[in-house]
Amino acid sequence: MKVLHIDSSILAGNSVSRQLSQAIVDQLKVKHDDLKIDYLDLAQQDIPHLTTAILMGENPAQTALTEQLVQQYLDADIVVVGAAMYNFALSSALKAWIDRICAAGKTFKYTENGAVGLAGDKTVYIASSRGGVYGENHPSDFQEAMLKTIFNFTGVDNIQVIRAEGVNMGPELKAKALAEAEQHIQLI
Ligand SMILES: Cc1cc2nc3c(=O)[nH]c(=O)nc-3n(C[C@H](O)[C@H](O)[C@H](O)COP(=O)(O)O)c2cc1C
């Protein structure tokens, strides 16, 4: 079983989403003994913004990178993505990854009846961290909402959010949020 483990926080060792994504992968290891894990650290591996030249296939190295990222996403049975809320949205590094894996004809296609996802046969775990408290479906949430929309667009229905929020609202709230997220992870 193939796992694609992605981190995108810029807070290195202080990152909450990195702590959660690793705990999810560790829990998956307890449940499955045949895991093959691909790790993508988007704070380390720079995925350049999508440009006209890259989109038009005029940069062979970047075309190869896009193809590699798309195939890695397609191959994964499970995707674990560490996603911090930055300015109500995702890190720009994670957005750059999204811009590569949303590939017409590979991860989705357009039909007479609208878009159809082609990468649906997988489970996605979103390890979400937020300084404030938003809960589910908050109007200012362009982080979890975007990820759910994108994974759904590529055909994935099985999306689970493990969230620690209010982590910048004092040590007690942070500890409570982390403990609740850890409990949630034990139930995966
Ligand atoms: C650049 C930056 C922007 C942030 N923007 C928000 C925000 O819009 N809303 C919020 O609740 N927290 C915000 N925070 C707090 C982070 O969501 C919080 O620190 C969270 O733990 C980040 O995940 P990470 O620890 O994995 O990096 C921001 C933090 C940084 C560094």
What would the CATH topology be?
Rossmann fold
User: Helix count, per DSSP?
Assistant: 6
Would you identify the regions where 5 or more consecutive residues have pLDDT less than 50?
none
Bound molecules: flavin mononucleotide
CATH superfamily: Flavodoxin domain
- What amount of the residues lies in strands? 15-25%
The strand order across the widest sheet is 2-1-3-6-7
Question: Can you give the helix content as a percent range?
Answer: 25-40%
SSE string, helices as H and strands as E = EHEHHEHEEEHEH
Largest sheet: 5 strands, parallel
What is the average per-residue confidence, as pLDDT, rounded to a whole number?
97
Describe the structure.
There is one protein chain. This protein has 188 residues and is of the alpha/beta class. It has a single domain (2-186), classed as Rossmann fold. The protein has 6 helices and 7 strands. The chain has helices at residues 16-31, 52-55, 60-75, 92-101, 144-153, 171-186; strands at residues 2-7, 36-41, 78-84, 108-111, 114-117, 123-130, 158-165. Strand 4 and strand 5 (114-117) form a beta hairpin. Helix 1 packs parallel to helix 6 (171-186). The radius of gyration is 17 Å and the shape is globular. The model has no long low-confidence stretch (mean pLDDT 97). It binds flavin mononucleotide (FMN). Residues 9, 11, 15-18, 84-88, 129-132, 167-168 line the site of flavin mononucleotide.
